[in-house]
Amino acid sequence: MEVEVIKGTKVLKVRNKEDLEALEEAGELIRRGELVAFPTETVYGLGGNALDPEAAGKIYAAKGRPSDNPLIVHVAQPEEIKPLVREVPEVAERLMERFWPGPLTLVFPARPEVPRRTTGGLDTVAIRLPAHPVALAFIAAARRPIAGPSANLSGRPSPTTAEHVIADLAGRIAMIIDAGHTGVGVESTVLDVTVSPPQILRPGGITLEELRQVVPDVTVDPTTVQDTPPAVGRVRAPGMKYKHYAPQGEVIVVEGAPERIAARIAALYDGYAAQGKKVVIMATCETASAYGERRTAVVGARADLGSIAANLFDFLRRFDEEGVEVILAEGVEMVGLGLTVMNRLRKAAGYHIIKV
Ligand code: AMP
Ligand code: MG
Question: Which of 67, 72, 103, 349 has its CA at a distance of 20 to 30 angstroms from the CA of residue 155?
Fold first, then answer.
């Protein structure tokens, strides 16, 4: 297996089954209170022992994350939630049965043994069981529940490759496990099952429509779908109130019918280009030809919103590397993964939205 050391951080390239054995060392680091970044099916996570308040503290420090923003705890087997939660509502049993392993995080009442550093001071704990063989092998090797927020510096787009993690965290953590690109590309859906009916606190990789097949009356925290910045105090997932997912360039989202979007974006592009700004259009397959010679990056297809989710963060980071100053992004329909994509895009834009 390939091993590299970058600024003191060990980078392990896991490419096949045999390489999984090397994760014993990663597990040992976790038991010693160190931090290890690991791949999941959504984005890369920054792992630490969820039961160790000092490890949780190191996670906040490495990311520059506000300490009231709770960490999601990752387990490798459903029964591993038992020592962490006070009760498992019947509805949660059904959701776990259907969506675990997978990109669904459930918020439970926490046992007192779960450090409040991990829960951001809350009496609830968010838990998920990821669908990635390397994540599962790593958690099993640690023999501890793993607190794992996205492995980016706070505020930046989430990492979907090990290179993204290296860019943000090399020199700040003990190890990075590299398993290539993540698949889903956006974070898990956070669902609160301590309230009835359950409520989505953050849209993510499992859609509202999928959840409603199991729990027809699931609701959505209105602050996650609104087109203006949420008022402080109204947001139920603490992390959703902060500036998030933002590249260095300015993002503007244009929302409406696709033909109208394309016409407005073309006009905006010409305006910024005339000012000498470095502009790029983040387009979709269906509209890309409308932009002619203008600099266009096709993020995915409207007909396959999952393709947009998979590429979104990677594209935002690439624009930074290229020194793009203005990113003109097309809004998509807020159905299925489109709800998740728009939640991330609007935040990345700091709610700079133009409706056409
Ligand atoms: P990240 O760690 O970057 O994937 O973000 C985790 C998200 O889950 C943030 O928006 C957190 O605020 C949210 N979250 C984690 N734990 C809880 C909890 N106990 N209650 C409500 N939201 C939570
Ligand atoms: Mg995050």
Answer: 103
| Euclidean distance between CA atoms 306 and 308, whole angstroms | 5
> What ligand is nearest to the CA atom of residue 313?
2
User: How many Cβ atoms are within 10 Å of 97's Cβ, its own excluded?
Assistant: 10
- Same domain, yes or no: 16 and 142: yes
Cα of 112 to ligand 2 centre, how many Å? 25
Q: Which of 86, 118, 202 to mutate to test the pocket of ligand 1 (most atoms within 8 A of CB)?
A: 202
Percentage, residues of the chain above pLDDT 70 = 99
Does the pLDDT value for residue 233 go beyond 80? no
111 and 188 co-located in one domain: yes
User: Cβ neighbours of residue 318 under 8 Å, at least 6 residues apart?
Assistant: 297
Tell me which residue range forms the domain holding 271: 250-355
Residues in the chain: 356
Task: Read off the pLDDT of residues 95-152 as tens digits, 9 standing for 90 and up.
Answer: 999 999 999 999 999 999 999 999 999 999 999 999 999 999 999 999 999 999 999 9
Whether residue 214 is found in the same domain as residue 254: no
Inside any domain, residue 162: yes
Report the pLDDT value the prediction gives residue 17, as an integer from 0 to 100.
84
The HSE-up count of residue 334 (CA atoms within 13 Å, CB side) is 14
Question: Is residue 231 one of the residues assigned to a domain?
Answer: no
Ligand approaching nearest to the C-alpha of 239: 1
CA dihedral sign of residues 64, 353, 265, 332: positive
Which tens digits make up the pLDDT trace of 175-220? 999 999 999 999 999 999 999 999 999 999 999 999 999 999 999 9
CB 34 within 8 A of CB 172: no
The answer, yes or no, to whether any atom of ligand 1 lies below 6 A from the CB of 69, is yes
Question: Are both 163 and 304 inside the same structural domain?
Answer: no
CATH number of the domain encompassing residue 95: 3.90.870.10
